[in-house]
Amino acid sequence: MSDERIKAPRGTFDVLGEQAAIRTALEDRARSILEGAGYERIETPVLEATELFARGVGSSTDIVQKEMYTLLDGGGRSLTLRPEGTAPVCRAYVEHGMHKRAQPVKLWYLSSFFRYERAQSGRYRQFWQVGAEALGSEDPAVDAESIVLLGTLLEEMGVREIRLRLSSLGGGESRERYRERLQAHLRANAGSLSAEVRERIELNPLRAFDSAHEGTIAVMRDAPRLLDELDADDAEHFAAVCQLLDRAGLAFEVDTTLVRGLDYYTRTVFEFTSDALGAQSGVGGGGRYDGLVQQLGGPATAGMGWAAGIERILLAGSPPPAGGHALDLYVGLADVGEDGSCPPAKTAAFGVLSEARSAGLRAVMEMAGRSLKGQLGQANRLGARYVALVGEGETVLKDMQDGGQETLATEKVVHAALRGLRELA
Ligand code: AMP
Fold this sequence. Notes:
binds adenosine monophosphate
């Protein structure tokens, strides 16, 4: 047997202490912003049928080709740890007949996702995304609202040096015509392209815009742009989205080279980046996916949504300062008893703890046999406003904020702490 220490797998991490608190704050902000705009929480399973992503995300994408964690379960079914959230949400929309509800159906999630990627700062193999999807309406106001909501979240989380890039990929015939023209351009310049882009001319020519390869970048400079070739409906839709974003006061740049790594996008696509992040500058993005629900076997349904990486938001943001005290009352013991013993004062202290919690206070009790000094130190570390040093009949209540203290009957302690906290509020 080996006694070598077992570590978390590469590209994964534990969420501890202060980080957990910051994430909770982010989740609270997201909930407030999205539920305030009519989005309902949804959570889908971590495991989905592999087919969902092959069909939904697209078999030519990096995600499906090389980044999925896929396994066979005991019954021989191919299952995949979800690499993204949009396809699962669309599956759930169909499975639960949500197309029969008033449209658009607006759903949000905060979940972990899995991609076998090269792990580095800002890029992990298990990461968290907050996402929002609005299904069942083509209205450009849905697009604009969705983008504004992510902008608000990033701003409230203090994400620095944000830029918003926006484009439209059109749809239907104009997209198909464009694809052929782009393929012709790529084929004509095949000698200057990276091997990877060359191999994908047939399968996924749009991704050539994402390449960091110098020769490819030069070829793409003169490539035809989809935005110039939109049909009238798509152009009108895009103009409306731009107009609404202007009205909302959200600055954006139209970027004709913006394509996203998933196949399902139609019409609007957008991405928020932060220059504070370096190489992995994408904080969040998304777009419209009007064909996806149908592709997954549901009725023809429009869709618009985004996902933003929690770790990237935290890397590029400055979390709001934690206000006030983390704890209302630290219940200590005036006489430190023998370890494991239960002198009457400990019973009294446990009573104070229960009473404090019933009154809605955030309270913690001494449970490690610390000295008086040790108890005060611990109360301080936990950010307690009050410390009660409970004796059998009498208790010393110490105000950690102004250093004052009073001695009172033990049964009056919670009342006194409550009164003090109300004065503070
Ligand atoms: P995507 O689903 O690829 O459009 O990604 C949306 C957002 O999720 C990105 O802008 C990142 O913030 C985040 N993200 C994607 N992949 C990773 C990853 N491997 N590690 C951390 N964050 C990621």
